[in-house]
Amino acid sequence: MTRSRPRVAALTGALLAATTLAGCGSGTSAPDAAAGPPQPGGILRYGLSVAPTCADPAQASTNQTIYVARQVVDSLTDQDPETGELKPWLATGWEVSPDAKVFTFHLADGVSFSDGTPLTADSVRKTFDSIVRTLGAAKAPLGTSYLTGYVGTTAVDPLTARVEFSAPNAQFLQASSTPQLGILADATTARSAEDRCAGAATVGSGPFSYADYRQDVSATLVKRPGYGWGSAVFGHQGEAYLDRIEFTVVPESGVRTGSLSSDQLDATSDALPQDAPQIEATGGRVLSTANPGIPFGFQPNVTRGPLRDPAVRQALLTAIDRQELVDTVLGPQFRPATSALASRTPGYLDLSQRIGFDPDATRAALDRAGWVRGDDGIRVKDGQRLGFAVTFSQVFAGNQAILELIQQQLRTVGIDLTLDLVSNAEYTARQSSKDFDALYYNSTRADGDILRTGFGLDGRNLNARAPIPALDDVLTAQLGAVDSETRKALIQQAQQQVLDAGLWIPTVELSQAIGAGAAVQDLKFEASARLQFYDAWLSGR
Question: Torsions phi, psi of 432, nearest 5?
């Protein structure tokens, strides 16, 4: 098919400007000069650090899950990882109403899903309807958050979809580039949430399709013959170069690195600093880029134990030596968190002076709040020990080592931290029921609206908090701000309010660190730091 010139309304420029990425990362596996031009064919063997949780991109939340699911689904738009600009993909152009309530997308002609059915405006309607009305916030928390205030989608004609919201929703245009809002075939949207998690039931229009999906074990993707509607961000047009991608789950970092070095795998997730020399010794390299969104941190349940005390939550902000976490556990491609947003996120505000490591300030704050050291060094107030548990899973290989070091740091100021490592399934269940003292996680998105997803009252409200007018007002106001500078200012206010209320205790910014063998060329990161295999190819095979 031939892509027509995009039609983009003038207002879109203001919305696009608000998505400019700050300090864009690098690390794409650019081809070696000796490798020559891209060579089609071959099987890329990829080692995941954690099992994907679901084959359905609408329900995907972890990086490892999205690495797989993103390859089978296309989105209406794509976001340039270097500039943050939104570019055509399934939509050749779009218009946004002045009040940011109505978004009209003009779809490319000749696009088909992997089951042979055509992409139409009705496909857009059924995809968004199913996220809101079938999956819901429990199964698709990100997608439903992006579709907040969704009224419906109208098929104006077979290739024109009009998406309407009950209130301004300025973030939606960027959300239309995410895999969670990727457009799926009727064969998928008609199914239940559980059925959609099985690979065969997930049918997209992407450059790859599922050949096999075994929960907690492996996933195999095959190239789509005839694919010809790639994003304007992609490095080439036409079919993908790779014939197949074979994802297997290899939890142990040393085993992943050994398999890469011995040519049993071509690329791996979560390459640790100690892995780099072994990878590089066999001609490989570590590709890295920083994640935008909410950095890793603690989200306290403000109804539980000592974390009910705002003074305790404030004291935690200065109790953590974030630079030590980076230097001891992670390595130079990572950064200490300095705000409620990661530094690559549009609208990021550096609050490092507000949350800098200052154990003396922590001790003084706890003293003033009446928390007194006990005989074992742990503080006590009114008979209650200053201790809490942090619930986490190993979605990132460094989580446990980071938390063990934080556990030691907090003990020096009289806080007893208990580590509660659970499976992904239990983590999700505990999160949903709010059965935790604090959660530890991060959330990736190249838009400051991720603060509303993480801390808004209308979503999951994982802090279990009551209304905070100063925060709630700016989270709502940024949805209606179509002027980029106005929206940026509101997002910056929201970061300050989140920390002022002690709703997030940031630790480190996540970076993707991918071990790539010598044969792997043009393996790229998209704007939200997830892998894009469409341009990847293998040399010397």
Answer: -65, -35
The DSSP secondary-structure symbol of 133 reads I
Who's near 22: CB < 8 A, 6+ residues apart? 292, 343, 344, 345, 346, 348
Sequence-separated (6 or more) residues with CB below 8 Å from residue 277: none
pTM of the full predicted structure? 0.88
Give the type of residue at 450: I
Q: What is the DSSP string of 342-403?
A: -TTSTT----HHHH---HHHHHHHHHHTT-EE-TTS-EEETTEESEEEEEE--SSTTHHHHH
User: 124, 111 in Cβ contact below 8 A?
Assistant: no
Which pLDDT tens digit goes with each residue over 250-295?
A: 999 999 999 999 999 999 999 988 899 999 999 999 999 999 999 9
- Helix ranges restricted to H, 262-333: 276-281, 310-317, 322-325
Q: In what helix (H) or strand (E) does residue 335 lie, and over which residues does it extend?
A: strand 335-336
123-141 burial, b if ≥16 CB within 10 A, otherwise e? Answer: bbbbbbebbbebbebebbb
Maximum Cα–Cα distance across the chain: 75
Q: How far apart are CA 407 and CA 419, in angstroms?
A: 8
pLDDT digits (tens, 9 = 90+) for 417-451: 999 999 988 998 999 999 999 999 999 999 999 99
Angle between helices 310-317 and 359-368 (to 10 degrees): 170
